[in-house]
Structures are given as C-alpha cells and as structure tokens.
Predict the structure.
Amino acid sequence: MPLVKKDKWAPSQRPVAIDPVTFKAFQVGKKGGEITLTFGSYSKWCLPMGETEREFYYDPRDWEDFLRRVNTQQGGMRAKYKWNGKNLWLADADLPELKRAPIVQMMHHVYECLPEVPEGYEGWLYKS
C-alpha cells in the first residue's frame, strides 16, 4: 500500500512524516480522543508489495519510488518511542534514565507543534 502526500490533517488515519534521507519517521495516531506520536524508522531493505522471494533496496535518491513501493500493510515502521503528551513508551525498556530526557524533549516538541510537519521531514503521508 503506497504512501501519498495529502494537504490535510487526519490523525485518526495515522499519517506519517518521513525524513527522505534517513528514513526516520514520526507517525501520528488518535484513539479515544487521545493523540499519540510514534517515532521510528522505515527500513531501506524490505519486501516490496507483490514480492515474496527477494529483498528490495530503496534508493534514497529516488523518494518517489520509495513512496510507491513501500509496504505499509503490516505497519511498515519500526517503532522506537511513543508519546501521548505526558508518558513515554520505549521499545528498549532498559534505556538509562539519562538518555531518556533528550527523547522526551524531542517527542514533546514535535507533539506540541502538531499538525506542523517536523523540519526536514516530508509529510503528512497517508496510506492510499
């Protein structure tokens, strides 16, 4: 399921903003009236839609090809952090407290600026 850029803000449709160089991404969600922000990354290596026997490498210089071929059927993004405005969820629960503060600061800043697309990211992208 490709990703398409839309000039709208619909957090219940789980839009993403992706850094086209690093493939790091923010995904927004809304459930029960609460907005959540997830940070993670898309792999440059993955099975594109319709492929079962080989991996495909997304050429970071071909952003449009990535958007057309990215497989989002099973989420697509590997989550590292999730923030709801007050609580931080970590994929790595053993992360030392000292390293959590900058993560909270980054997540809080992006969360407070929603629906603005984070600087250096392309978005908002929706599953088509």
Notes: The two ends are 6 Å apart (CA to CA). The beta strands are 3-5, 16-18, 24-31, 34-42, 45-46, 56-57, 77-83, 88-90, 122-127. Residues 18 and 86 are 23 Å apart (CA to CA).
